[in-house]
Amino acid sequence: MKVLVPIKRVVDYNVKVRVSADGSGVDTQGVKMSMNPFDEIAVEEGIRLRESGAAKEVVVVTIGAQAAQDVLRTAMAMGADRAILVKTDETLEPRAVANALKAIIERENPGIVSMGKQAIDDDMNATGQILAAKLGWPQATFASKVTINGERAEVTREIDGGSATYGVPLPAIITADLRLNEPRYASLPNIMKARKKPLETLELSSLNVDTASRLTTISVAEPAERQAGVMLNSVAELVEKLKTEAKVI
Amino acid sequence: MTEIERDEMEFDVVVVGGGPAGLSAAIRLKQISPDLNVCLIEKGSEIGAHIVSGAVIEPRALEELLPDWRQTDAPLRTEVSEEQVLFLTEKRAFPIPGLNLVMPHMTNHGNFVVSLGEVCRWLGEQAEALGVEIYPGFSGAQLHIEDGRVTGIVTGDMGIERDGTHGPNFTPGMILRARQTILTEGARGSLSAHAMKHFNLRDGVEPQTYGLGIKEVWEIPEENHRPGFVQHSFGWPLDDSTYGGAWLYHFGKNLVSYGFVTGLDYKNPHLSPFEEMQRTKNHPAFRPHFEGGKRIIYGARALSEGGVQSLPRLTFPGGVLAGDSAGFVNVPKIKGTHTAMKSGMLAAEAVADALNKNEPQALGLEERLRNSWLWTELHGVRNIRPAFAKWGAKLGALYAGIDSMLLRGRAPWTLHHPHADHETLRPAAKTAPIAYPKPDHKVTFDRVSSVFLSGTNHEENQPIHLKLRDPAKWLPVNHTLYDSPESRYCPAGVYEQEQKSATEWDLRINAQNCVHCKTCDIKDPTQNIEWCTPEGSGGPNYPVGM
Amino acid sequence: MTALVLLEIENGAVRQASRSAVAAAGAFGTVDVLVLGHGAEAAARLPGVTRVLHAEALSDALAEPAAALLADIASGYTHIIGAATATGKNILPRLAGLLDVQPIPDVIAINDADTFIRPIYAGNALATVRSSDSIKVITIRGANFDPVASEGGAATVEAVAFNAASQVNAAELLSVNLSTSERPELESARVVISGGKGLKDAENFKLLEPIADKLGAAIGASRAAVDSGFAPNEMQVGQTGKIVAPELYIAVGLSGAIQHLAGMKDSRVIVAINLDPEAPIFRVADYGLVADLFTVLPELESAL
């Protein structure tokens, strides 16, 4: 079985993003970029599936500019076998990404698509679900544990108030939540080896899929800063305010 | 430590540190001998992530390294257009007249205001294009020494737990073997310190002295922006016996670089370099530049200030020192970039020569240095910083004028650095406390919100990388005698003294906040704080603009 | 315009997050709701709801048939809305995939029928986006919309059949393991009470427990408290810990370092209890109490 891991290059989670002065977006020029942290978890899960014998090959794919190949190299340094860069200079929405991934999946025929539950830039949390719908595959989102039993995966998902375990017929989409695993370090020898692993580049246009945007960003703003409230004198006053004014208890 | 099996990899040259010195050395090596196998490691998460500098840079070394840089997209875009040096009193500012005569080293005609982090990223691209293998996110943990010769370095282990045990993701460091190792770690580098100690490179030279530079980058309204405006100050708020001052540069797209250097030979343990930096912004000569603006980046680093008197021997069997690892800052000029680059280039030339002749030590480096403009330049200004230490800011400045104008740097004497920086503190009880103003959260800020803007993080389960060699010393010495100076000199708020009870005090070390400035390693009065290299990628993540 | 809201039912009642979604849906005209499994009666009592569509045989635990049913009935609606909960985020984007539209998750404000505000970059920026899709698939952040009441409405209930459910290639629910701890998870708790260094030691940290029990709150901690060993790392709220946005956040003896504020500033109501009137936490708190927490905590416990 093959595991396909779609990954995204995003502004590094340590970077404090800034809204650009003209309000058109977030200033990403010159800031450190790295692999979306949830995608790192998805890559790690793919590698673990191969190491456990459940999978034979781990293929990573990203859709983005030429520079996005650095996250593919990182994934291969972690242990992915090969990589595909679908090149485009445009920013795609989850619907468009799902269309492009569907074309790649039809070519690669993976048994599992392991992907991050959301990217930390647009916070959409949607690509996996849209992709599953378009493929007619089952989905197991927000996974915290995955085991493979032949043609089925058993996936524990994070749900409101706890967790639930599902039997998932393969092929399926699994989206990774934080607790699924702790991704390994890309060691220096492995980074060196990853430079020699195969990386295929193809143009997004060659996939012939609909990648039009359905959302237009009108403006991006910084959230309003919280204003200081009132100072109270006693616990009784506090409880009263919480009950009658804020209505939260 | 128990024996760990380590992977090995062989190179002709390993460069430790991706700053201007290391990158220039790597580029020069490939220019001289394209076939050399050159590897450069950098502990920051990417090239530039740990770079802090003013920076007004002199393009002299760059002209020599990459003569066609003006035809490229090199990020030197803001030429200095107007400049002044101010002597400050609390309320007033006096510009130094005839700057090019009395402080010729302070004139910046033809220089560029840059983000040095951006310049380093660009140099990194040039190096990679020449075939240098660059590995960011990996720290040099130890020198690899065999038979009295450095034969490479060992990168840091990853995935060690807080208690020292190997976690589930333990990844051992790797031995990077090299015929020659170039150490360009910046001020107070750990491997450089090890090499200096192991090979006695500092025998007979004066102690290195340091300054702590703390910097902010601001974005200001376009109508207030004066690209190429350069201002330096000395005097207030420091007392006459403390060396230091502020800089303020307008550059890039509505950006302002502001910062403050404090000589770490300061004597009053109550002094806080961070607060001096903050309160200087309130001075009428500075405050208007920040009005309506927004602070976007914060960072700090130590820089060497010793000059040629403090330079160690630069070569040892199997390697060399260059850049601020050795101490090539031109302090009166407040510039270390062109000197770091030149020292890296000279190191590369000497190393290439040694490799060619198959000699273990690049002994030719010292001679190359003495025959270069770098030596002439640094030797000419050697007395200025010590004069400030000896006679204070006002007389020091007077001496600087005489030295430059009348003696033109050719004074027949050399002033000395009698003390290392950790020896200069006086007991807290014998010095006056300093009342610093509270932050207004518009122009001046507290430390914690500042560190937030450095993007600093360390993998949280790793062992604390800041250690007390003798924990029992802290209470009687640091706390009782000096009132915990580390809680003030650390620009990242790593050290906090905590009252446990009426009589008990303890030191909290928030190592995760550390911005890798090394001040604690330098200034602790008994050298009791040891700065160990943390896991690679840890530390600040300075964006372009820094 | 007519909106359809996918409701989530818990213990026979409509979840508050879903009632917020119903409130938000009111902006689009008529509101219908869909109930999967039990709970149609509770749904019918929600004020502002016209029709309750009831698919008794389905469950919101399975996204595949739920999304397929929604796609089947979508054509009559301009907006299909869910709460931005684990359930909503599982089902609604899948529905968007079936309809070939781009979903709009985590909406915090509705400008008009096509234009929405949603947080990006973990709430560090707010994007205003306009959708050109004919059917808008939206999830709603509960904290930003006052929920409709549980009672007061009288909607009609219509059963909807979804016969093709068995033909959908779906996962199968094997078991559910709801958190047995009395306390909710930090990230999804309605109330969070967090302690800082002011609690002085791990023993005192337990003073938060009886109050948390009374409020049904999760317990959090500042990084300083975690670093000092008062609380385990998984309790850390902040930039390097968990990001929370509860209805009520009570900060006890914590100064409000910016890393901490980054992790809780989106809470709806913030209460700060600290002895130091200069503590930065007071600059973001709705209600502040400058007092010794060791006298306040027992008082608060008995007042609740």
Automatic annotation (TrEMBL), chain A:
Entry-linked SMART domains: ETF
Domain of life according to the entry: Bacteria
Keywords tagged on the record: Electron transport, Transport
Start and end residues of each Electron transfer flavoprotein alpha/beta-subunit N-terminal domain: 23-211
Ribonucleoprotein recorded as keyword: no
InterPro entries for the chain: ETF_a/b_N (IPR014730), ETF_b (IPR012255), ETF_beta_N (IPR033948), Rossmann-like_a/b/a_fold (IPR014729)
Similarity field: Belongs to the ETF beta-subunit/FixA family.
Protein name: Electron transfer flavoprotein subunit beta
Automatic annotation (TrEMBL), chain B:
Pfam families on file: ETFQO_UQ-bd, Fer4_ETF_QO, Thi4
Documented EC number(s): 1.5.5.1
Cross-referenced InterPro entries: ETF-QO, ETF-QO/FixC_UQ-bd, ETF-QO/FixX_C, FAD/NAD-bd_sf
Cofactor: how bound: Binds 1 [4Fe-4S] cluster.
Superkingdom as given in the UniProt entry: Bacteria
Cofactor: [4Fe-4S] cluster; FAD
Role description: Accepts electrons from ETF and reduces ubiquinone.
Protein's name according to its UniProt entry: Electron transfer flavoprotein-ubiquinone oxidoreductase
Protein species of origin: Neokomagataea tanensis NBRC 106556
From TrEMBL, chain C:
InterPro entries reported in the protein's UniProt record: DHS-like_NAD/FAD-binding_dom, ETF_a/b_N, ETF_a/FixB, ETF_alpha_N, ETF_asu_C, Rossmann-like_a/b/a_fold
Keyword Electron transport: yes
Keywords: Electron transport, Transport
UniProt superkingdom: Bacteria
tRNA processing among keywords: no
Pfam families on file: ETF (PF01012), ETF_alpha (PF00766)
Residue span(s) of domain Electron transfer flavoprotein alpha/beta-subunit N-terminal: 3-177
SUPFAM superfamilies: Adenine nucleotide alpha hydrolases-like, DHS-like NAD/FAD-binding domain
Protein family: Belongs to the ETF alpha-subunit/FixB family.
Name of this protein: Electron transfer flavoprotein subunit alpha
Species per Swiss-Prot/TrEMBL record: Neokomagataea tanensis NBRC 106556
